[in-house]
Hints:
Blueprint: E1 7-12, H1 17-27, E2 32-39, E3 50-54, H2 64-68, E4 73-76, H3 87-107, E5 112-116, E6 130-131, H4 144-162, E7 167-173, E8 175-177, H5 182-190, E9 206-209, E10 217-219, H6 220-232, E11 237-241, H7 249-256, E12 259-262, H8 265-277, H9 285-291, E13 296-297, H10 300-305, H11 314-327
Parallel strand pairs: 1-2, 1-4, 2-3, 4-5, 5-7, 6-13, 7-11, 8-10, 9-12
Helix pairs in contact: 1-6, 3-4, 8-9
Amino acid sequence: MSSTTGSRIVVTGATGNVGTSVVRLLSEDPEVGSVVGLARRAPQWSPPKTDWVTVDLSAEETDLAAEFAGASAVVHLAWAFQPTHDPVATWRTNVLGSLRVFEAVAAAKVPALVHASSVGAYSPGPKDEAVDESWPTHGWPDAAYCREKAYLERALDTFERDHPEVRVVRMRPAFLFKRESASEQRRIFGGRFLPGPLVRPELLPFLPDIPGLRVQALHTDDAAEAYRLAVHSTVRGAFNLAAEPPVDAELLGELLGARPVRLPRTAARSAIAAAWGLHLLPASPHLFDAVLRLPLMDCTRARTELRWRPEHTANEVLEEFLDGLQQGAGASTEPMRGRKAG
């Protein structure tokens, strides 16, 4: 492990679900001298050793190299999930903004870049066995989220070839949840017409059991710990991050006390597509298609090389998140603000 005592760590997307956890862990880390959080809107939150800089990655005039100067590592988390009906807008922030981050890392001679990739970057894969980091990362081309994550994987291939002096780490986490992210994720995926307090087990007489709906989850704080370890380490390359067990209709049925009922994939997709087309649901049917095809991930490399272990099971993650959803939980940053009503 390399020493980063007194180091300056810059975090983009520092006020979102993952960013708040990463900033908190780094600010509490005695080996970190200072943390610089980059976000579109400065928060009220003031963790130790942390300074905030207001930055819009989609703006071409942003001088990121100046913000990165003197940093020991840049942790790149910034991402826009919406508007899902305008893929050009998300491409401008997610892809072009990320390319600016990569270029600025090289220009400022930052020795390490820890990038937030995703399980969504993976090509379709098996649901009955886990794949390692060598599985192809071509995404699901019809879903903007997956397409953008996969594109950045190729961009990083080129970046690593052209800048071998930069240690590049790609984190590929499963779906990330914590109590404080409940209101944000309800707005992103459920929309303004889904009041969190109505998501209660007693109001769910049955649970749709859709073929292919078997995914992995992870507590956001556990993912943040992997980022912290990567900052201090000498590792390079990709790392899968997920908790056990995989999440399917049976597990959710037990958690919610609801009976799984088989629902054809086409019926579920048609309902989602109709709601999305009417702007009643932010989550697109294209993302639904991708989720049904995502492979399960093997996390052996993270355990052996990063010495990383998740502290929460997938069951615990979902229980905490559901409680936060019902209570309208949030945090004191603009993306994470709590709100009960839809």
